[in-house]
Design brief:
The chain is mainly α. The chain is built from four helices and two strands; from the N terminus they run ααββαα. A two-stranded antiparallel sheet has the order 1-2.
Length: 65
């Protein structure tokens, strides 16, 4: 079982840019780690809403990640 809190701490302590960290954390929150599936489609728009970042920023961060 994935420990979400430890996973988020690892992201926060990484050398990623802030936009990349927020994008990755938004992705982490979208996944049900018991089933390894999202309950709904994950889109750049939904990641933007979750993180507060713009859609273009999300696309750039995902490309880097």
């Amino acid at each position: 079982m994935i420990n979400t809190l430890k996973l988020i701490r690892s992201v926060l302590n990484s050398d990623l840019k802030q936009s990349e960290k927020l994008t990755l954390i938004a992705c982490i929150y979208k996944v049900d780690w018991r089933t390894w599936r999202a309950d709904y489609p994950i889109s750049t728009k939904s990641l933007s809403n979750e993180s507060g970042l713009g859609v273009r920023t999300i696309v750039r961060a995902l490309h880097t990640l």
